[in-house]
Design brief:
Elements lengths: L9 E2 L2 E2 L2 E2 L4 E2 L3 E2 L11 E2 L20 E6 L2 E6 L3 E2 L11 E2 L23 E6 L2 E6 L3 E2 L11 E2 L19 E6 L2 E6 L3 E2 L11 E2 L4
Antiparallel strand pairs: 1-4, 2-3, 5-6, 7-8, 9-10, 11-12, 13-14, 15-16, 17-18
Length: 205
């Protein structure tokens, strides 16, 4: 009389003339619910409720989901977080979307060139960027040279990047971030609209 397979992940056994009692499990699996019909239902290498042995529950941690990897409790970090200090007890403690020391991934440091001016390296949505000092702008879009433009005095970027201080028949100056037009000789800004410059030729016949 041959013993039949008792269920998934089991081995046929005969103990004192009785087939498959108790169940003999394939290595790495266990019968944690005590039900013969479903065999050895638990994978001890990956079950977070039965990690390495029945009843061994992997603890949860901040910003992480408990996991069992190769029979060892671990944590799977939530999106945008990382276990950068390698300490399982405090979970995934680092927000990799905002940390300049771990931007987008653990160990990815945001930095700027040695000649960068008026800027602080920052991390925005997991990508390195720069934060400009007040009154300065990164108008060339190049993070390596920092915030190279003085928005208080630049006639091409007066008050904000791309805000040119210029007008027809006039010379523009930028003072404290505000555009001022000086009309050329023979012209005047009669409508008070700096956008169209000095629109009236006062010496016209």
């Amino acid at each position: 009389r041959a013993c039949a397979m008792a269920g998934p992940n089991t081995r046929m056994s005969c103990v004192q003339g009785v087939c498959n009692m108790p169940l003999v499990c394939v290595q790495g699996f266990a019968d944690c619910d005590g039900m013969v019909t479903n065999g050895c239902e638990v994978n001890l290498a990956s079950s977070s409720e039965n990690c390495a042995r029945c009843g061994m529950v992997c603890p949860s941690a901040p910003n992480a989901v408990a996991a069992c990897q190769e029979g060892q409790c671990a944590a799977t970090c939530g999106m945008g977080f990382g276990n950068c200090d390698m300490n399982a007890a405090n979970g995934c403690e680092t927000d990799t979307r905002r940390s300049a020391m771990h931007c987008g991934a653990c160990g990815r440091v945001c930095s700027i060139g040695g000649d960068a001016m008026n800027a602080t390296p920052t991390c925005v949505d997991g990508a390195c960027s720069v934060t400009c000092a007040e009154g300065f702008g990164n108008c060339d879009g190049n993070d390596t040279n920092g915030c190279e433009t003085n928005l208080q005095s630049s006639t091409m970027h007066c008050g904000a990047c791309g805000m040119a201080c210029q007008g027809a028949n006039a010379t523009g100056t930028c003072t404290a971030g505000r555009c001022m037009l000086t009309c050329n000789a023979g012209f005047a800004d009669c409508d008070g609209n700096a956008a169209n410059g000095c629109e009236v030729a006062t010496n016209a016949s």
